[in-house]
Amino acid sequence: MNVSFGMITRSFNTLDPIEDFLDNASKHGQKVYSVVIGYSFNCNYELVEALRKRVNVFTVKINEANFMRQEMRAMGISTKTISTLLDVPSLERSNLVPYGINRNHVVMKSMLTGSDVLIFIDTDVYPRLLVNKDGETYEQDIDFVGRHMAYLKDEEVAVTTSDYSGFYIIPPMKFDGMRELFAGLQKENVYTYLMNHDEHHCLAYANEQERAPFITNKILGGNVAIKLDVFKKILPFFSTVYEVNGMEYLTRGEDTLLGLELNKAPHTKCIDIDTRIFHNTFNNYPMVPDVLEDQNIKSRFFYACMGWIGRNPFMNHINGADLDAMRDEQYANLLIGAPKAAVYFNDARFLQLPEALLASYEQASRVVDEYHELSRSWREFIKNVT
């Protein structure tokens, strides 16, 4: 099988961490067919040419994927479908590209250029584990590609994934109203973990000595390997943007849909291989994240909150929940938690979370329509490409 690495980024201007993954694969005798890079703004083609000395490299620029458009037209794919799959109006309006559309560009490019397995890696993850043993912390080498491929050899296993070691995406925090904040964000399970952050600082280690792979539907987009022929059975990634007070925000959870899709596909498994590669979440490891003093960390958390709020109505719709009841309960919690978060963070942006929640539910029908249009377009694409 042709195994490729896929990456999405706003601008491609560094070989980090692509070179780390290629070096790791080479060290362990794993052949990588290509690297596929989806980007929105700029690409340093000197770096691309440097990569091409060791591997095939394919790039696709959002809203300028002209070669891919031509290929799709030549296959007989309709203009409407090509527009649905490749046009990203939010990039022109707000400089935003939904995560799902970004990843799907890389998926389609990979399918059109001969890949069989696509391993997505994010720009802040590395092919090694953060391990703590006998009080000593160190980074441990692993056969990253080999770990995924060992399970993908099973005919019924279509996707392999795993969580991360490193700092959790939510930084340490503790304040009155935090329970209500996370209930309003539909992240209730986070509360107890954060309340104990004095013990662990939200830092997770790989449990290498006690690995226990298991079947899952929770997919992590920066540590996932996909047999591309599974897309004959399921829809790809999906997320969008939504508007609050004239500004657009990205929704999160593009990989959530993929997990739900896999649940519905017969004889199709997703395995968590329990290989928690190192995630340098805030790009300052080993410093403990300080959400109160570091403006970048604070902003990252704010946009994550907006992203979860934007994701939840669609996710609840797909799961068959009572949207009105969910909205009312979440809104009531955010009315309590958001003002207290604004005081704790000394950041008035958090005051708009309740309003953002109402806006996200008001726009849910439009998001559902987008999803159905993606479904129709994806079926046409797959019919012609395979």
How would you characterize the overall build of this protein?
This protein has 386 residues and is α/β, with parallel strands linked by helices. The chain has a single domain (3-385), classed as Alpha-Beta Complex (Spore Coat Polysaccharide Biosynthesis Protein SpsA, Chain A), CATH 3.90.550. Helices cover 44% and strands 19% of the residues. The chain contains 15 helices and 15 strands. The protein has helices at 18-27, 45-52, 66-74, 79-86, 89-94, 99-112, 144-152, 178-184, 190-195, 197-200, 254-264, 295-318, 323-345, 353-362, 364-385; strands at residues 3-9, 34-39, 56-61, 117-121, 125-133, 136-141, 157-161, 164-167, 203-204, 214-215, 223-227, 241-244, 247-250, 269-272, 277-279. The strands form 3 sheets. The chain has an 8-stranded mixed sheet with strand order 3-2-1-4-11-7-14-10, sandwiched between helices. β5 (125-133) and β6 form a beta hairpin. α4 (79-86) crosses α15 (364-385) and α12 (295-318) packs antiparallel against α13 (323-345). The longest helix has 24 residues, at 295-318. It is globular and about 55 Å long. The protein starts with a strand and ends with a helix. The model has no long low-confidence stretch (mean pLDDT 97).
Question: SSE layout and pairings?
Answer:
Elements: E1 3-9, H1 18-27, E2 34-39, H2 45-52, E3 56-61, H3 66-74, H4 79-86, H5 89-94, H6 99-112, E4 117-121, E5 125-133, E6 136-141, H7 144-152, E7 157-161, E8 164-167, H8 178-184, H9 190-195, H10 197-200, E9 203-204, E10 214-215, E11 223-227, E12 241-244, E13 247-250, H11 254-264, E14 269-272, E15 277-279, H12 295-318, H13 323-345, H14 353-362, H15 364-385
Parallel strand pairs: 1-2, 1-4, 2-3, 7-14, 8-15
Antiparallel strand pairs: 4-11, 5-6, 5-15, 7-11, 8-9, 10-14, 12-13
Helix pairs in contact: 4-15, 8-13, 12-13, 12-14, 13-14
